[in-house]
């Protein structure tokens, strides 16, 4: 039985823990990877530059996979564009195989007007192409089952994982710069963070390349916005941070996991907004600090308390690292996803051609 994995997240994805685990556990495994991740500051750049790039990548890799020999029995992919392109090619080939699996599905409402209806229709079509749709939070799975009731049986959940490749030093031994760091673009509430910081003695560095998520008007002496920080540069900022804050909107959508887990991985104390999708990642109350959504006063109090208490930050960071290693690393995720793919291959083996 043959498994293909298509990802545009990195040209070096074949060296990811997930790919290595799949390669070691599944005899006939092949990856189709490249760097097609969107990088944009405006919606215009997304529409006219990044989407064409992603569509071309999806068509090219889907074509290579579907006409490969031996033919794949299961195809694992991360994005709606890849799965839509693959589903169309599969229809044109008049074949019931391969089974398509969507890893990391997040559904976001686009309103109740025409755009919202078209968005839901598109997602329903792509989900229809898939045999399995895997979310990264139980709240996402529940929401998807409500939005797409006729396809509810396709949804399941596994926790997201972050890869490092090395073990960071304990918090107390790190060379820290005394900074507060925040990052990310999806469902962020940077206005709340800016207000929380405004009456304190602290300043925050926000890493966000999207103007809609973090508008320039939020910048001040206490709020430093960094637009072009990626890869190693971001990791350097994270490693030197005293504290990481992930302020999120009051939403049922999945958000904040990656930055939160990166901070935990690097043994950093974390403050994060308490929303449903975050709760799946809380294995211990002493591994991070939760604050209510849209509550600048509570966020300011949490920041002040931790910044004034070295021992509390050290304890929080140490526990966060333990939780990350046990549950939230890319190695743990790779184990979970590999077992899911074995089940999909077994299902494909019993599926009529």
TrEMBL record:
* One example GO MF annotation: transferase activity
Q: List the PANTHER family hit by this protein, alphabetically.
A: GLYCOSYLTRANSFERASE
Record's SUPFAM superfamilies? UDP-Glycosyltransferase/glycogen phosphorylase
Name the Pfam families for this protein: Glyco_trans_1_4
Taxonomy, superkingdom = Bacteria
State the Gene3D superfamilies in the record. Glycogen Phosphorylase B
Q: What is this protein called?
A: Glycosyltransferase
| Entry keywords, A to Z | Transferase
């Amino acid at each position: 039985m043959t498994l293909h994995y298509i990802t545009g997240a990195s040209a070096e994805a074949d060296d990811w823990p997930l790919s290595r685990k799949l390669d070691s556990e599944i005899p006939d495994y092949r990856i189709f990877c490249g760097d097609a991740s969107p990088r944009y500051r405006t919606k215009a750049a997304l529409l006219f530059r990044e989407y064409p790039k992603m569509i071309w990548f999806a068509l090219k890799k889907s074509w290579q996979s579907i006409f490969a020999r031996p033919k794949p029995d299961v195809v694992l992919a991360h994005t709606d564009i890849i799965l839509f392109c693959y589903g169309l090619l599969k229809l044109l080939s008049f074949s019931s195989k391969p089974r398509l699996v969507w890893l990391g599905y997040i559904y976001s409402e686009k309103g109740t007007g025409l755009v919202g209806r078209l968005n839901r229709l598109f997602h329903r079509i792509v989900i229809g192409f898939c045999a399995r749709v895997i979310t990264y939070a139980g709240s996402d799975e529940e929401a998807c089952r409500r939005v797409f009731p006729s396809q509810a049986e396709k949804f399941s959940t596994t926790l997201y994982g972050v890869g490092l490749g090395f073990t960071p030093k304990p918090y107390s031994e790190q060379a820290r710069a005394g900074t507060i760091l925040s990052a990310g673009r999806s469902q962020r509430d940077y206005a709340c963070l800016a207000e929380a910081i405004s009456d304190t003695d602290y300043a925050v560095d926000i890493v966000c390349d999207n103007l809609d998520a973090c508008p320039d008007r939020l910048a001040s002496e206490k709020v430093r916005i960094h637009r072009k920080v990626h890869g190693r540069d971001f990791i350097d900022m994270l490693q030197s941070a005293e504290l990481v804050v992930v302020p999120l909107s009051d939403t049922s959508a999945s958000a904040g996991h990656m930055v939160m887990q990166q901070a935990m991985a690097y043994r950093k104390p974390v403050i994060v907004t308490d929303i449903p999708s975050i709760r799946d990642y809380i294995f211990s109350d002493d591994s991070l600090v939760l604050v209510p959504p849209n509550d600048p006063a509570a966020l300011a109090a949490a920041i002040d308390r931790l910044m004034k208490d070295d021992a509390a930050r050290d304890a929080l960071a140490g526990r966060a690292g333990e939780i990350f290693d046990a549950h939230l690393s890319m190695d743990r995720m790779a184990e979970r996803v590999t077992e899911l793919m074995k089940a999909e291959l077994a299902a494909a083996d019993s599926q009529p051609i």
